[in-house]
Prior knowledge:
alpha/beta, 5-stranded mixed β-sheet, globular, 8 helices, single chain, 231 residues
Amino acid sequence: MLHEAADKYPAYGFSKLYKILRRWGHVFNHKRVHRVYCLLNLNKRRRGKKRLPNREPVSLKVPLVINQCWSVDFMSDALFESHRFRTFNVVDDFNRQVLAIEVDLNLPSARVVRVLERTAAWRGYPDKLRMDNGPEFISTTVADWAEEHDIELEFIQPGKPTQNSFVERFNRTYRDEILNMYVFKTLSEVREITDEWITEYNEERPHDSLEDLTPIEYLNKYKSPDNSNWM
């Protein structure tokens, strides 16, 4: 079963795989599973990075319900033939649910607004958007859209990504489990694999910060009567 879990979730380390086995109904001893994990050489070598100390940590308040605050950010990567592409990621801070990942060679502010509008059509509009100071975000296009729907725009300080740590933590997971895991030849491949992974992330992947529940399970456990229809 451990091999099956590792094959299905190749980017997961021991802690996540053990939680997956528990979710599948197996009650194996933690130490026994770890011994087998090591004997099968499933333990991963982690890349070491020098990190500067966070001299001004900023604590983020976790929203009490959905749509109080969405965190958004861009990422970039390259196809096999070296063409660069970007992703626009949208996460609800309440239950860390991925609401959208838009993939294309270029994602201008008008495209950002279309993605947000499309997401709001099924999720509802957020009270606030948290973002960095990228040119797409500080544009009048995004500002006008936010004003039209009474949405507060909260910009983090330049050079302070920890002030947007919910989406930054998500970005790291997305890079480890998708962008660094596959060699993509086309944008269609990126979109297809990303869409499949979003379902896994929201409905199958346990989160340490969510009591080892998935985002959807956490939403269903703590949803209020006002948001009972949103997934």
